[in-house]
Amino acid sequence: MFCKSKVRTSLTLMVAFLFLGALPAAHASSRIKDIVSIEGIRENQLIGYGLVVGLNGTGDTLRNTPYTEQSLTAMLERLGVNAKGETMRPENVAAVMVTANLPAFSRQGNRIDVNVSSMGDAEDLKGGTLLATPLMGADGEVYAVAQGAIAVAGFSAQGEAASVVQGVPTNGRIANGGIVEREIPFELSDMTSVKLSLHNPDFTTAQRVTRAINRHLKNSMARALDPATIQIDRPIGYELALVDILTEIEQLPVKPDQKARVIIDERTGIIVMGAEVRINSVAIAQGNLTISVSEQPQVSQPGAFAQGGQTQVVPRSSVTVEETGTEKLTILENAVTLQDLVDGLNALGVGPRDMISILQAIKAAGAMQAEIQVM
């Protein structure tokens, strides 16, 4: 029997590096439409409860899910079938929750995709058909009706002594399975002002967007209210409508600014460093201590013709200590960039396992001019 264990003094995480935005790319321009959202233009979430039929014996067990039986009885009564008081044991029916997102400016008759998820003990929704299900908004009003055959990506198979499940067979999707029945009133063309909301709030970015809009329209229509909000007011008598103004400005290029930030996910070992990260002059050395313990027990037993004695296991252990890492200090000069930081750590021969500890130590020493966020 052989076993081996290792104890490391550094943080032993499998780290994947995602260095986003080298310096030239960090100052690349983005369109205004890609960095802002317009107030009032958003999706609305819909939800409904329905029944799926046509399953191949993989539906709900009515004994365990009484609400499925109640729903089935009520549906049959609406269709003129009296099933009240009858004992039903169908295996081809499942109770499901149906969800969808109603896009902005959806009109009556538009089709939307819907998601179907089992809420009982159904094993598989493959081959099932969702019956007409009203989809309601947060106000309790019905905005769409969903129905259709369910497409399931996962599957399950079971034998006498083994089973295989791939993906999630109790969750499916109906492409264009919902029909919009009610519109959400929102008339953008009648508005005299609109607010733009930055996806990543920042004072500098807000001012840059404001200046780009006013410079293009040759009018002081835009003003930054806060780091996340820019308001555009259409002057009385202005020849362009608000829709035309938004069409004009959404293609304007702007250079977004960002805070110097390092994101660390200790669970997965992922590190993301922004291009604005700066390091003051600092010296770094890195090393690891590895202790290896090997067990190779020996079996001692008496000879074939021995009159006495018994078989025993004699433990034999081997312990080795190895210290690895750099043998010298590496100096990172003052105010180095992200690329300089990466080059300096690579010069140390630092592996991904130690990067998190080094970055946290640099921050603790006050040499990193950036914010560290641990997820």
From TrEMBL:
Cell cycle as UniProt keyword: no
Major place of residence: other
UniProt-listed Pfam families: FlgI
Keyword Protein transport: no
GO MF assignments: structural molecule activity
Residues of the signal peptide: 1-28
This protein's UniProt keywords: Bacterial flagellum, Cell projection, Cilium, Flagellum, Periplasm, Signal
Cellular localisation: Bacterial flagellum basal body
InterPro entries xrefs: Flag_FlgI
GO cellular component, one term: outer membrane-bounded periplasmic space
GO process annotations (BP): bacterial-type flagellum-dependent cell motility
HAMAP family in UniProt: FlgI
Family stated for the protein in its record: Belongs to the FlgI family.
Biological role stated in the UniProt entry: Assembles around the rod to form the L-ring and probably protects the motor/basal body from shearing forces during rotation.
Description of how the protein assembles with itself and partners: The basal body constitutes a major portion of the flagellar organelle and consists of four rings (L,P,S, and M) mounted on a central rod.
Protein name: Flagellar P-ring protein
Organism in which the protein naturally occurs: Kordiimonas lacus
Gene: flgI
